[in-house]
Automatic annotation (TrEMBL), chain A:
HAMAP family: GatA. The gene is gatA. The lineage of its organism: unclassified sequences, metagenomes, ecological metagenomes. It comes from anaerobic digester metagenome. The keyword Transcription does not apply. Its EC number is 6.3.5.7. This is glutaminyl-tRNA synthase (glutamine-hydrolyzing). One of its GO terms (biological process) is translation.
TrEMBL record, chain B:
Allows the formation of correctly charged Asn-tRNA(Asn) or Gln-tRNA(Gln) through the transamidation of misacylated Asp-tRNA(Asn) or Glu-tRNA(Gln) in organisms which lack either or both of asparaginyl-tRNA or glutaminyl-tRNA synthetases. The reaction takes place in the presence of glutamine and ATP through an activated phospho-Asp-tRNA(Asn) or phospho-Glu-tRNA(Gln). HAMAP family: GatB. This is Glutamyl-tRNA(Gln) amidotransferase (Subunit B). SMART domains: GatB_Yqey (SM00845). PROSITE patterns: GATB (PS01234). GO terms for molecular function: asparaginyl-tRNA synthase (glutamine-hydrolyzing) activity; ATP binding; glutaminyl-tRNA synthase (glutamine-hydrolyzing) activity; transferase activity.
Length: 450, 480
């Protein structure tokens, strides 16, 4: 299976077995075990694992073994989950297809000629084809939801601050958030139970009362007020995808929700705002990869500046360099006000769009992506075309609100994801809607034939 | 030369006295093995996020309040992006847009005049690591070593307005700043350990002009004296260049202590640090009540203490200024005064013997063995007449070196003063008998002759006679 999908950069069979044996012992001893005990949860390779290679799919970190684990990894270990391996991604999580991985492209289990989406494509594909029961990914502009949609699994981006980012290799710190992949909503809730909550090691992690997310697994959305932003259903959305999404919305309505079309008027600026803010932060976050302390260092350099330059030009791939240059430019003296600062202001407007919408609605729904999974190589020549894959997902990161992709149908045999968007820290409403939808459909039972 | 005036602003970096670093739990202890006080956060490992040290915020606020600053209740950190091997993340976390403290001032006393220097801002930031160049200088070494023990140590950078006009004023500013921060207990302020570092921005302009000239930034000054010398040199260099029809190049210059000159290091065309908000860290929100709680913990500061010494103890302003210039000295003075309540006498000994010996031996007060109680005992011995003032100085030096009790030193050295009149009468009689000419001179009105006779008595007693008593007895006898 893995030969055809290539979901993993590193497989950790021995570690997984060792963890599984520990759970077996607990069971034999009659100890109480957690719901995740012994469950294989794959981890995206930009999340640090103590003593296990963590590369962010970059040549820059091709040999990097962190001396510490991310908080989410520690929490999964504490819950008894096993680690089958570290999954492939676009280099430093920059991309929508895993084609920017410095090592290889992961294949979509539904059609191995197509991409799994990105950047957490390895995690989505591993869950879709059964190589892992669940997985963790990270989402900066759609990197969990897009591959979940392309691979027909559940993907959840929690509210910014709900999950610790300690140990997540930063791409854009104000947007990055870790979240789970699973095959059904129940597993998603169990994973959220394990990873959410304040972490003293991450100063942006929120102090909030973490609910037991399984209590939202209720098959009832009667009276739920759902808004459908027109901007997310407009031209540019593939007609097949739109049709599937409209049908899914109709199902929600038939289950007792009230549905209304609404507007998020600043949506058209989201992509350009995102592509100023995210690269600006990335240009700074990725400055540490200079060859001095760890990771790749270029050979044959004449002095320290030469070492910095050769290390970075040889160690980073094209898309990463493109974004570093974009971000450096946006922050440069003379451009800061016109680009970066302006983008921050638009970001506020986008947030306010959502605030206004959530005064009226409990939930917003839309497609996750304008298309289903595209063919490998189809968009690699045109970065802008690739960026458009995230047109429906990036606004949520700018606003910091939770978003979820749930399987809602197929177009020509390829899965389509329905995006659910909620208020800050209102993960529960998303889970309830997703669970109700799942109980009244069977898209989540579909399994790719390999 | 007088047609130009100097315009000087100082940037002072002060290490805050915290146990742990600004964003991680690593120790800040000085002088440990390289790279032993490091962790994923201060090494900038991928994925490691830091958390702000509350104590550092408290000390920065305290420093700001002690410098009469306003405190920002809503501030945050920014990133200053640049590449250097000692900078593990490729950016320094600092406060660019909103400093935690701003709009302060300190007052200098210089040549009997008071001058206020305004402080633009005092902001929190992290220290980078430290580079050591193998084989000496940065030019000749074949490789460099980086020690990240210092990486992430909390600093406040205190920036003055360009209101300083001479090297002397700069030195006075630094001394005052050091004293205030020391009193406030926010830093060790030791330049030799790098807990206080100073860069100077220097320019000159025609007297009367309000336009700023092109400035140079002077680095590598390792003492307050060096700051003064470097600035004086640089001011003169710039004036000479302008008088010769040349112009000043905006650049960073290094002070060469041995040659006594500044030399060009690199041209500085306003590097673009691409500063922007640090999103890994939550903003710093301070409550007014909390700021007031911090204010309440600030002890008496140098100016208040100086005023107290003048008003309550009648010390001359100059003495009070010297004594309060360092917390140790002021504490020493107060403690001695408690046991020997004659402020002027205590001050004379502190300003005279104590400072003379500290300077001569190049020691800190904490390294000297003499105690305030010891000084008070010594002064009591002198007051009683048990020893002379001159002997007292001898005893003081022994106390300074060895820390013994003055009584014991007097005994060991056989220094006790002879004030006993019957004992002195005998010796004085001998001296009178042996020096008839001087006796006659004195009796015929030559007042000076008595000094010679006193000297002879002192000689005969190897200096142990009480000169006042001797003088009195002599006059009595010669008047007979």
């Amino acid at each position: 299976m893995e030969d055809r999908i290539a979901a993993y950069i590193t497989r950790t069979r021995e570690k997984a077995l060792e963890q599984a044996r520990a759970v077996d012992r607990q069971i034999r001893n009659g100890e109480k075990i957690s719901p995740l005990a012994g469950i294989p949860v794959a981890v995206k390779d930009n999340i640090c694992t103590d003593g296990i290679l963590t590369t962010a799919a970059s040549r820059m970190l091709a040999g990097f073994v962190p001396p510490y684990s991310a908080t989410v990894v520690k929490r999964l270990e504490a819950a008894g989950a096993t680690l089958p391996g570290k999954t492939n991604l676009d280099e430093f999580a920059m991309g929508s297809s895993t084609e920017n991985s410095a090592f290889f492209t992961t294949r979509n289990p539904w059609d191995t000629g197509r991409v799994p989406g990105g950047s957490s494509g390895g995690s989505a594909a591993a869950v879709a084809c059964g190589e892992a029961v669940c997985a963790l990914g990270s989402d900066t502009g759609g990197s969990i939801r897009l591959p979940a949609s392309f691979c027909g699994v559940i993907g959840f981006k929690p509210t910014y601050g709900a999950v610790s980012r300690y140990g997540l290799i930063a791409f854009a710190s104000s947007l990055d958030q870790i979240g789970p992949f699973s095959r059904d909503v129940t597993d998603c809730a169990l994973l959220l139970n394990a990873i959410c909550g304040h972490d003293p090691l991450d100063s942006t992690s929120a102090r909030f009362d973490v609910p037991d997310f399984t209590r939202f697994l209720v098959n009832d959305i009667r009276g739920m007020k759902i808004g459908v932003p027109e901007e997310y259903m407009a031209e540019g959305i593939n007609s097949g995808v739109r049709e599937v999404v409209v049908k899914a919305i109709a199902l929600l309505e038939s289950l007792g929700a009230s549905v209304e079309y609404t507007n998020l008027p600043h949506t058209e600026y989201a992509l350009s705002t995102y592509y100023l803010i995210a690269p600006a932060e990335a240009s700074s976050n990725l400055a540490r990869y200079d060859g001095v302390r760890y990771g790749f260092r270029a050979a044959k350099t004449s002095d320290v500046m030469d070492m910095f330059m050769k290390t970075r030009s040889q160690g980073f791939g094209a898309e990463v360099k493109r974004r570093i240059m974009l971000g450096t430019y946006a922050l440069s003296a003379g451009y800061y006000d016109a680009y970066y600062l302006k983008a921050l202001k638009v970001r506020t407007l986008i947030k306010e769009d959502f605030d206004r919408a959530f005064e009226k609605y409990d939930l917003l729904v839309s497609p996750v992506s304008p298309t289903t999974a595209f063919r490998c190589g189809e968009k690699t020549g045109d970065p802008l075309e690739m960026y458009l894959s995230d047109i429906c997902t990036i606004s949520l990161n700018l606003a910091g609100i939770p978003g979820m992709s749930i399987p809602c149908g197929f177009v020509e045999g390829m899965p389509v994801g329905l995006q659910l968007m909620g208020k800050h820290f209102d993960e529960g409403t998303l889970l309830r809607a997703a669970y109700t939808f799942e109980q009244n459909s069977d898209y989540h039972r579909a399994f790719p034939v390999l | 030369m007088s047609r130009y005036e100097a315009v000087i602003g100082l940037e002072v970096h002060v290490e805050l006295k915290t146990e742990t670093k600004l964003f991680c739990g690593c120790s800040t202890e000085f002088g440990k093995e390289p790279n032993t006080q490091v962790c994923p956060v201060c090494l900038g490992l991928p994925g490691a996020t830091g958390v702000l040290n509350k104590k550092a915020v408290e000390l920065a606020v305290k420093a700001g309040l002690a410098l009469n600053c306003e405190i920002g209740t809503n501030t945050w950190f920014d990133r200053k992006n640049y590449y250097y091997p000692d900078l593990p993340k490729g950016f320094q976390i600092s406060q660019v847009f909103r400093p935690i403290a701003y709009k302060g001032y300190l007052d200098l006393e210089l040549n009997g005049k008071s001058k206020r220097i305004n402080i633009t801002r005092a902001h929190l930031e992290e220290d980078p690591g430290k580079l050591t160049h193998a084989g000496g200088s940065i030019i000749t070494s074949h490789c460099s070593y980086v020690d990240y023990n210092r990486s992430g140590i909390p600093l406040v950078e205190i920036v003055s307005e360009p209101e300083i006009r001479s090297g002397e004023e700069a030195k006075a500013y630094l001394e005052k700043l050091k004293a205030i921060l020391e009193y406030a207990g926010v830093s060790d302020v030791k330049m030799e350990q790098g807990s206080l570092r100073c860069d100077a921005n220097v320019s000159v302009r025609p007297v009367g002009s309000t336009v700023l000239g092109t400035k140079t930034e002077i680095k590598n000054m390792n003492s307050f004296r060096a700051v003064q010398r470097a600035i004086d040199y640089e001011v003169e260099r710039q004036i000479e260049a302008l008088m010769d029809g040349g112009r000043i190049i905006q650049e960073t210059r290094a002070w060469d202590e041995n040659l006594g000159v500044t030399v060009a290091m690199r041209s500085k065309e306003n590097p673009d640090y691409r500063c922007f908000m640090e999103h890994e860290l939550a903003p710093i929100e301070l409550k007014t009540e909390w700021i007031e709680d911090v204010r309440a913990t600030i002890p008496e500061l140098p100016d208040a203490r100086r005023k107290r010494l003048v008003e309550e103890h009648g010390l001359p302003v100059y003495d009070a200024g010297v004594i309060t210039s360092s917390l140790d000295l002021a504490e020493f003075f107060d403690a001695a005064l408690k046991e020997y309540p004659d402020a002027k006498t205590v001050s004379n000994w502190v300003m005279g013997e104590l400072l003379r010996l500290l300077n001569a031996r190049n020691l800190e007060l904490s390294e000297a063995k003499i105690t305030p109680g010891g000084l008070a005992s010594l002064l009591k011995l002198i007051e009683k007449g048990a020893i002379s003032n001159k002997m007292g100085k001898e005893v003081f030096e022994v106390m300074f070196e060895e820390g013994k009790d003055p009584d014991q030193i007097v005994k060991e050295k056989g220094l006790s003063q002879i004030s006993d009149e019957s004992q002195l009468n005998r010796i004085i009689a001998e001296v009178i008998a042996k020096n008839p000419k001087s006796v006659a001179d004195f009796q015929s009105g030559k007042e000076k002759a008595i000094g010679f006779l006193v000297g002879q008595v002192m000689k005969a007693t190897r200096g142990q006679a009480n000169p006042g008593v001797v003088n009195a007895i002599l006059r009595e006898k010669l008047a007979e």
